[in-house]
Write a structure and sequence with these properties.
The protein is mainly alpha-helical and 111 residues long. The chain folds into two domains: 48 residues, no CATH class; 47 residues, no CATH class. It contains seven helices and no strands. The radius of gyration is 16 Å and the shape is globular.
Length: 111
């Protein structure tokens, strides 16, 4: 399979990083990689994977509020609205998470 980082003295199979870790653990790994090699886990993995699997990996590595803002943006983009995505978003997040998603989404609209 693919290796996560080639600039380490050894290679780490990506599936051991991605499939056997919780979201907080993956975020800690990503932060450590930024400190060590100046690149995040998501940027390194995206070089090796593409298509639907690549998108799934990217979504798995995103913060909850970043992912929620992206889902909201995609659901509202274009001529129609994806009401199922909006309902899923609202029903699976707390009020605090939805407030954080709103802040991220509004910030992404401005920039």
């Amino acid at each position: 399979m693919m290796s996560v980082v080639s600039s380490f003295e050894f290679t780490i199979p990506a599936y051991t990083v991605l499939c056997n870790r919780t979201k907080p653990q993956m975020q800690a790994i990503s932060e450590a990689m930024v400190e060590k090699i100046g690149r995040s886990l998501i940027s390194v993995v995206q070089e090796d994977v593409s298509g639907n699997f690549g998108r799934m990996v990217a979504y798995a590595l995103m913060d909850v509020d970043d992912l929620g803002a992206k889902v909201f943006q995609k659901a509202c983009k274009g001529a129609g609205t994806d009401t199922e995505a909006l309902i899923d978003l609202c029903m699976t997040h707390t009020k605090d998470e939805l407030a954080a998603i709103k802040v991220k989404w509004e910030a992404s609209k401005i920039s």
